[in-house]
Amino acid sequence: MKYKPFGVTAEPEVRSKLLQGKEWAYIVFVTDGISSVLSDGEIVDLARNAKDPKEAANAIMDFADELGAEDNLTAIVVPLAGWGQIHGPDRTKE
Questions:
Q1: Looking at residue 21, what is its pLDDT?
Q2: E runs forming strands in the chain
Q3: Helix (H, G, I), strand (E, B) or coil at 45
Q4: Which of 3, 37, 68, 86 could be cross-linked to 25 through a Cys-Cys bond (beta carbons 3.0 to 4.6 Å apart)?
Q5: What angle do CA 47, 69, 50 make, to 5 degrees?
Q6: Distance CA 77, CA 2 (A)
């Protein structure tokens, strides 16, 4: 309650979007321990070519740890209808 004047509340911001078809491969949820050291593009690149969601989540957490993340690391990768069908270059590898 003491942080409410600063805009901190217990009410989450909720957004919704209907994901239809095989154009959606996965959803990645990460904690701030990961998002503070990796960009969205890096997270997507790490998950895109993994053989399964567990490998994708491990790759994300391992890379964040390698970059020196100092907070808790959690990554959840949820496969969708397009899993394994969407490929592309690793634009953040460099």
A1: 86
A2: 26-30, 75-79
A3: helix
A4: 86
A5: 15
A6: 34
Mapped onto helix, strand or coil, the DSSP state of residue 72 is coil
* Residues whose CB falls within 8 Å of the CB of residue 84, separated by 6 or more in sequence, listed in order: 25
Residue 80: pLDDT band by 50, 70, 90 thresholds?
very high
Q: CA of 92: how far to CAs of 2, 22, 43, 45, 78, in Å? A: 41, 24, 9, 7, 22
Residue range 4-9: mean pLDDT, rounded: 80
30: Cβ contacts below 8 Å, ≥ 6 apart: 38, 43, 60, 74, 75, 76
**pTM of the entire predicted model:** 0.81
Provide the 3-class DSSP secondary structure of residue 41: helix
